[in-house]
Design goal:
17% strand, Beta-Lactamase, alpha+beta
Length: 244
């Protein structure tokens, strides 16, 4: 049985993409977690599965060669619909999975337990799951440990996301701190691609700074003298009172 699509699916996919984790090489920090999950739960297979739009992709896999499967046959696509652990004691006896090719064929799933990987924004990105080829269940200690390990996966994802954003910010700061070509007449700025733009457009491109526009006192007097005669004396008087 194909899993339902989560509510706010577009936001969930966007949250997943922001981690820039899909299709990246294996990493010891994640492999250590799946190895520990397999050991604690005494199962031959453990996965960190990220549910993409049309597939589930495995950032880490113990006991499984495949790197991804279709989302249509994914157990994890069902698990991300829950807030807590999903346990399937015997997939062959479960109407959702009895005719699933991952049950009737390789790897011959009979037991499944998956904990959703919930981002700080509340989006289920995938699961940390354990799998066995025979019917069984988990005890309370194993469930709590699996939940704790799932939180560690999310913390690792967040650490890498924040580190990546920090590196990008530092690169932008280095660019801003360098020599920036600026037009002597219109004060336009030339970027590293050779294109000219306004100061506002340049800074907004390389930072999250926003702009509002006004007219300074000198420009007010030069370009709008009638308005300056009305506003500036009042402003100067107000400033004097504030200083007192």
């Amino acid at each position: 049985m194909k899993a339902k699509i989560p509510s706010q699916e577009a936001d969930r996919i966007e949250a997943l993409r922001q981690y820039k984790i899909l299709d990246t090489p294996a990493e010891h920090s994640y492999d250590d977690i799946t190895s520990l999950a397999a050991y604690i739960c005494d199962v031959p297979i453990a996965l960190i599965s990220l549910v993409d739009a049309e597939r589930q992709w495995f950032k880490s896999a113990v006991g499984l060669v495949a790197r991804e499967t279709s989302r249509d046959v994914s157990f994890c696509a069902h698990a991300i619909l829950r807030s807590g652990v999903m346990i399937v004691k015997d997939a062959a006896e479960d109407e959702r999975f009895a005719d699933n090719p991952l049950v009737t064929g390789e790897p011959g799933i009979r037991f499944y337990a998956g904990v959703p990987l919930i981002s700080p924004g509340g989006h289920p990105l995938g699961t940390l799951c354990v799998i066995d080829r025979k019917p069984r269940t988990l005890n309370d200690y194993q469930i709590k440990t699996l939940e704790a390990l799932a939180r560690q996966v999310v913390m690792q994802l967040e650490l890498q996301r924040v580190s990546s954003q920090l590196a990008e910010a530092l690169e932008k700061m280095e660019l801003m701190a360098g020599l920036i070509p600026i037009c002597s007449y219109c004060k336009g700025i030339r970027d590293d691609q050779g294109y000219w733009s306004t100061v506002e457009a340049f800074i907004q491109h390389y930072s999250e700074v926003g702009f509002t526009h006004g007219v300074c006192d000198n420009c007010m007097q030069r370009h709008f003298p009638e308005v300056a005669d009305i506003l500036l004396p009042n402003l100067e008087k107000k400033d004097t009172l504030m200083e007192e």
